[in-house]
Amino acid sequence: MTSTWTRAGLTRIGFRGFVPFADLLTVPVEALPNVDGVYVVIRDSNDPPVFLEHSIAGHFKGRDPTVTDLSALERAWVSGAHVLYIGKAAIGKAGRRGLRKRLEEYRRFGDGEPVGHSGGRLVWQMADHADLLVAWCPTPGRDPEEVETQLLDAFVDEYGKIPFANLRLGKRF
Questions:
Q1: pLDDT at residue 145 above 90?
Q2: Who's near 171: CB < 8 A, 6+ residues apart?
Q3: 20 to 30 Å CA-CA from 111: which of 55, 61, 76, 101?
Q4: Separation of alpha carbons 83 and 158, rounded Å
Q5: DSSP calls for 11-52
Q6: How far apart, in whole angstroms, are the C-alpha atoms of residue 149 and residue 66?
Q7: Among candidate residues 9, 79, 3, the one with its CA nearest the CA of residue 45
Q8: Range with the lowest mean pLDDT among 13-17, 53-57, 119-123, 138-142?
Q9: pLDDT for 155
Q10: What string of DSSP letters covers 54-116?
Q11: Mean pLDDT of the chain
Q12: What is the pTM assigned to this prediction?
């Protein structure tokens, strides 16, 4: 049986896309709609990570997202894991949010814009950030925050800690 935390395993449980951040804007609306869902950032490489001294991400509300203590990044690294981050996207009360909007914000934050997407910010301090892939899974009829929490719990069960760029476990339901 394939591990859930590989590209094949994620595909098996409904994730699709697996595109570089830069290509998110070219994904057809039908494939990446503004609906509730969860998403992951994966790294296909098994090479040890190389961390940048300064994050390339935007300074939202004037805050530099850089982790100055590179040893903290090394401690957060999950050896053997390809999934670096698990996130969620809710459609919102006005119906204008969802996967497409949330992933667009994440990409723009990584492009250095002052956008509010501090979750997953550690990926923007990786030297190979341009090679990272994003995959998503709509969660119709399910609370994306609950699905995110279940995925985080399952990841911790397998690896003993949360994914590299997640800064906290999801909410407990």
A1: yes
A2: 145, 146, 149
A3: 76
A4: 12
A5: HHTT-EEEEEGGGGGGS-TTTS-SSSEEEEEE----SPP-B-
A6: 26
A7: 79
A8: 119-123
A9: 96
A10: S--S--GGG-----S-HHHHHHH--TT--EEEEEEE---TTS--SHHHHHHHHHHHHTT---S
A11: 90
A12: 0.93
The encoded tokens of residue 101 equal: 């909007």
Q: Rounded to whole angstroms, how far apart are CA atoms 13 and 83?
A: 14
Cα–Cα distance measured from residue 76 to residue 137, given in angstroms and rounded to the nearest whole number? 25
**Lookup result for tokens 């939202």:** 60
Amino acid at the residue 39: Y
- Tell which residue, 150, 38, 149, 42, has the closest CA to residue 98: 38
The amino acid sitting at 141 is G
Cα 82 to Cα 170: distance, rounded to the nearest angstrom: 19
The pLDDT value recorded for residue 166 is 95
- Neighbouring CB atoms inside 10 A of 2's CB total 11
Where residue 147 falls among pLDDT bands split at 50, 70, 90?
A: very high
